[in-house]
Task: structure prediction
Amino acid sequence: MSFGNTYAGRVAEQKTPDRTDHNITLDADDDRWEWRRRIRANPTKHLVYRIGVGVVGGLLLIAAPLTGWLPGPGGIPLFIAGLAVLASEFEWAQRLLYKVKDWVKALTAWTGKQPAWLKMLGSIALFICVLIAIWLYLAVLGVPGWFPDPWERFLARLPLLP
Result:
């Protein structure tokens, strides 16, 4: 069975661009910054630089789940930043970063195609999850003393909060 004239056939015939050259490290010629090309020219400096990039990127990746429970965006931006730092020097991280970007694009396209009622339902569910997370945070750590008195009185009426 031939898909030649169908959309599926045209997509199947397209070749996906190979974004990497499958080396362990990025090539100096691929780098757009002169200062990094100079570092890569010296093997000792390059090794120290790679270790530094690995440590900084690794720390950001470790910090991502540790800060994920905090209010705000938390660990997702830290994870992406850590992956971007590692991708500046390591080919495997660059491949993983491309996969994450493709996943985010696919998820964004999928959510854009959903009906408005489903988007609203998802927004309400997310809002309820955030409220529950804040409530659990306050239940475990207590209500901060810097909250205004009316808020403290309101929160004192909720279960598990002092």
